[in-house]
Amino acid sequence: MAGLLRRRSRRLLAGLARPYRWWLALAAVLILIRSAAFLSLPYLVGLGIDKGVRPGTTGNLSTLYLIVGALLLAIALNALANFAFLRVSGQIGANMLFDLRRTLFAHVQELSLSFYERYTSGRIISRLTSDIDALNELLSTGLNSVLTSTISVLAITVILLRLDVRLGMVTLVAMPIVVALTYWFRSNSGRAYRAVRRAIVLVIVHYVESLGGIRAVHAFRREPRNQEIFEDVDARYRDANIWSNRLVSTFGPAINLLGRLTTTSVLLYGGYLVIQGQLTLGILTAFVLYLRQFFDPMQELSQFYNVLQAAGAALEKLAGVIEEAPTVPESVTPIRLDSVKGAVAFEHVTFAYRDKPVLHDIDLNVPAGQIVALVGETGAGKTTMARLIARFYDPTIGRVTLDDVDLRDVAVEELRRAVVTVTQESFLFSGTVGENLLFGRPGATRDEMVEAAKAIGAHEFISAMPNGYDTDVRRRGVRLSSGQRQLVAFARAFLADPRVLILDEATSSLDLPSERLVQRALRTLLRGRTAVIIAHRLSTVEIADRVLVVDAGRVIEDGPPSELRVAEGRYGSLHRQWLESLA
User: Fold this and answer.
1) Distance between CA atoms of 109 and 115, rounded to whole angstroms?
2) What CATH number has the domain bearing residue 502?
3) How far apart are CA 233 and CA 235, in angstroms?
4) Positions in the chain whose pLDDT score sits under 50
5) How far is residue 388's CA from residue 353's CA, in Å, rounded to a whole number?
6) Which of 188, 220, 315, 355 is most buried (CB neighbours < 10 A)?
7) pLDDT, tens digit, for every residue of 466-498?
8) How many domains does the chain have?
9) Residue 77: predicted pLDDT
10) Same-domain status, 350 and 491
11) How is 412-475 classified by DSSP, letter by letter?
């Protein structure tokens, strides 16, 4: 599994980098120029000592000036190449992250409801925030350091052996220890940083869910228990960070100590060779300078290895989300309906949530323009039937049709325009009342918007607000009461003018005066339109042409409400109980 995750992470990174391959090639050239200029500095210093200064002689000033000029040129070239590389790499990184965020957001919007039943909102937010931030740190700083350090280590190894094989062999004595330390660090840090990523997700999930349900937290005095849970997941995050920091604090100083011991050994042996006349002082100086450049990148690698691990773990999770496929995909050859009449049919439909059957062999025809009420106990399958009509799910067996066309073959855009759902928990976006109304049909005029609000009975309270239709409802519409939010949701749905309207417990948040107002509006606005009403309030059901009583995933009664209420069936019993409750 780990190998698969690494492969898909590489595929994701390669896909993000593909549009910028020429910019990446330019960055590679710039980093090679920068590294070459930087690596030439110790050699030029050693050359200046041997050819320009010549210890024990008067030296050669013209040669020294020439070497110093080359040294200054190398410094300037390194600075310019570094400047250009940082500009180019920064632009590439910003564009890649922009593309990733855009792709991820577009993809999660297209995913089916089953995805959101498996993924909590906190985990999705973690993908869009902490995981993107981890990748940003890699692209903005870590990648630069890793590439430079890798090039430096490989190039300096060759240079040291070319300068003097004897001193090079002294240096290579330390390499088995370096390799062993690196292997130990990699094997442990990989697990440590995955633990860090898992822990931060738990922190974000608990934080988001606790604040999202803050009313329930206060209502049930859940604060102490939530605090206990948060302290537990926060402690896991702390311990994971301590573990990773312990690894870095061991690896970095160990490499530093090894570098100092190696430099001391080279100075001791090299000094002996210089005294014996077997080595020049310039070469020894250059060798010592290169040694510093050899071990410093290894320390940098230890500092940035956590960035690499965090980014790798983040890429795995991001790739996993992007590879999620919608469970209700659009047909390869979608059918576009010229004019939707609104006839809905269930043809021997069976549906199961994760292998748990909810609906059993439903066979049902709803003619265009008919208002149907679904009645039954909680969990009977009413909402599932409504979701199948809206194609939030596909049947496990059988098919659901719109005007005799399988919903799986209808273009998603046309289906969403033809079928609109209003739920119990109406969601309002940040913005004005008018913007929320136009959400259903952005191209509608202001007059059409106002007429829809008047028809549903929302115009009066909207006009009474400080700025009328331009009043900001604030986040999630907190400026409005639950009943007012529901009326706005009704007006929004009616403005969309669907051929099929689904009301899923949509009147449960309304008080009695508002419900009566909505019922009067529904009689007018539902005329000629197919409607499916799910409601426990039988006053809402009474406007229906037909009632379906659902029990345990099956339709057990079907008929006009006037007939069913006087029969000795389930609906008749419910109606009598309702009348008794009113008395």
Assistant:
1) 10
2) 3.40.50.300
3) 5
4) 1-5
5) 12
6) 315
7) 888 888 877 666 677 777 787 888 888 888 888
8) 2
9) 92
10) yes
11) HHHHHHHEEEE-SS----SSBHHHHHTTS-TT--HHHHHHHHHHHT-HHHHHTSTTGGG-B--G
